[in-house]
From TrEMBL:
Belongs to the FPP/GGPP synthase family. Its cofactor is Mg(2+). Its EC number is 2.5.1.-. This is Polyprenyl synthetase family protein. One of its GO terms (molecular function) is transferase activity. Keywords: Magnesium, Metal-binding, Transferase.
Length: 310
């Protein structure tokens, strides 16, 4: 990860100092480096996990993720990311969007170094990521299950890139086709679980724990797992909560009341249980790996995703 971190610092630099400043802003704020870490872990299933291609692939997925965050924060009108001011709140929407585009293009440059097949995989991943982002902005179609719609959004917006992280690690680390397929499926499930736990944190955490403004999705009216499960409960005792959710949560007092009611609602524990079950399903995909430290680490990785607090 030290090598990856150093490489990332170089990749966000531009010949223009201002572009280097904006592109390096979120990376300097920190982050879990979840995706490159998964690339490195998955590479350990092969016979050359220390290859240059593995490091390049780790940078590809993190730069793609960082780029999407610049765009996400504009769409969400979020003021904080990783405990720091968001790019759009400092430099405005135009600069934030173009910085995201710059990072996407840097990621594409690196992907080209990995070969035509990696370019195809990256393009397919990017298609799914953007589709998921777009679907998040529209309501479910008439007759469509809101929860199914939400999970489709999650699979595209987050699961796709994390699946590719595991796939790249296995492929460029020299793992077999069987292991690559299993780890891709593992990454897809873990990736969705990661986003679901992130959405739970949007309700359950405070800004000091997560580095994000709590209730951002709630304020923006973005349906998430706890909200959808609270709605599905159809409990008359939730009348006030439903009234708030159906109204305008731009008002700080109404937003705070809705957040408080959701934190006390059984749906929050139901959502947590769902994510733990997802982690168990992901771990089952690792049966193709021999017992040992690599499999143990990947299993622990899934568990951390399910119960993380930040």
């Amino acid at each position: 990860m030290v090598v990856v971190e150093e490489a990332l610092a170089g990749h966000v630099r531009s010949r223009a100092g201002f572009v280097s400043e904006t592109a390096g802003h979120l990376m300097a704020a920190g982050g879990k480096r979840f995706r490159p870490l998964l690339v490195l872990l998955a590479a350990e299933t092969g016979d050359h996990p220390d290859s240059d291609e593995v490091v390049t692939a780790a940078c590809v997925v993190e730069l793609t993720h960082l780029a999407s965050l610049y765009h996400d924060d504009v769409m969400d009108e979020a003021d904080l990311r990783r405990g720091a001011d968001t790019a759009h709140s400092i430099w405005g929407n135009h600069v934030a969007i173009l910085t995201g585009d710059f990072l996407f293009s840097k990621s594409s440059e690196l992907t080209a170094d990995l070969g035509a097949d990696a370019v195809r995989i990256q393009a397919q991943t990017f298609t799914r990521l953007v589709e998921g982002q777009i679907l998040e902005t529209v309501a479910p179609q008439p007759g469509e299950d809101p929860l199914a719609h939400y999970l489709e959004v999650v699979a595209g917006k987050t699961g796709s890139l994390i699946a590719t992280s595991a796939r790249y690690g296995a492929r460029f680390g020299g793992a077999s086709a069987e292991v690559e397929e299993a780890l891709t499926a593992y990454g897809e499930i873990v990736g969705s679980a990661f986003q679901l736990s992130d959405d739970i944190l949007d309700i359950a955490s405070d800004s000091g724990e997560s580095g994000k403004t709590p209730g951002t999705d709630l304020r923006e009216g973005v349906p998430t797992l706890p909200v959808l499960m609270a709605r599905a409960a159809n409990d008359p005792a939730d009348a006030r909560l439903m009234e708030l959710l159906d109204g305008d949560l731009a008002d700080d007092d109404r937003h705070a009341e809705a957040l408080d009611l959701l934190r006390k609602h059984p749906a929050l524990d139901e959502a947590r249980a769902y994510v733990v079950a997802q982690a168990a399903e992901a771990k089952a995909k690792l049966a193709v790996l021999p017992a040992g430290p690599v499999r143990d680490a990947l299993e622990a990785f899934a568990d951390v995703v399910a119960v993380r607090s930040a």
